[in-house]
Amino acid sequence: MGKAKKTRKFAVTKKVISPKDMRVKSVADAAKAKQVAKKKAEEPRQVEQAVSALFFQYNTQLGPPYHILVDTNFLNFSIRNKLDVVRSMMDCLLAKCIPCITDCVMGELEKLGGKYKVALRLAKDPRFERIPCSCKGCYADDCITQMAKQWRCFIVATCDKELRGRIRKIPGVPCMFIANHRYTVERMPEAFGAPR
Questions:
Q1: Which contacts (CB < 8 Å, 24+ apart) does range 105-114 have?
Q2: Can you tell me the distance from the alpha carbon of 95 to that of 194, in angstroms, rounded to the nearest whole number?
Q3: Is residue 152 within 8 Å of 51, Cβ to Cβ?
Q4: Which pTM does this prediction carry?
């Protein structure tokens, strides 16, 4: 008996896993992402409650005596420009003003050290109202933004451009800053003493 002749198989390729197979990692990831998106679509959406103090963009809660949340750099720039904080605020708004300082801003002033001793002494003035905040040692700008968003009865006094940008996004909260050695308020029509 002779040997059986083996014929070569023509155009044979190796078996490859189908790209749609669940063992392929990218397909598994896509399926997981699809499941998460489906679950997210099913859960109820959180809609923020409208603030009752606003009449369109006008805040009806703001009125004399004005409560003004003061930032660290606002105090420093006031000292640098030789401005009395309370008197300059009254000149700007032509009404009684109560400067308010949160615990976070006070902590920030204490951390700055001896260079800003005058600002710290000014912040401890009895005319300044101390506001306790619920956040434990967070960044002062975040604390001020959260306070302004939560209560909507404050004017925020700051010279920090980034913080002013964040405050502008909150409707009905005016922002006080220093320009040309005077205090000015933006987004507040009844501030008659503010320079235009």
A1: 105/70, 105/71, 105/72, 105/140, 105/143, 105/144, 106/130, 107/137, 107/140, 108/72, 108/140, 109/72, 109/75, 112/72
A2: 12
A3: yes
A4: 0.76
Q: Position 60: which residue type?
A: T
pLDDT in tens, the chain (196 residues): 667 777 777 667 777 777 777 777 787 888 899 999 999 888 888 877 888 888 888 889 998 999 999 999 999 999 999 999 999 999 999 999 999 999 999 999 999 988 999 999 999 999 999 999 988 778 999 999 999 999 999 999 999 999 999 999 999 999 999 999 999 999 888 888 888 7
Residues 6+ apart with CB under 8 A from 100: 67, 68, 69, 70, 128, 129, 130, 131, 154
Place of tokens 């640098």: 80
Radius of gyration of the chain (CA): 31
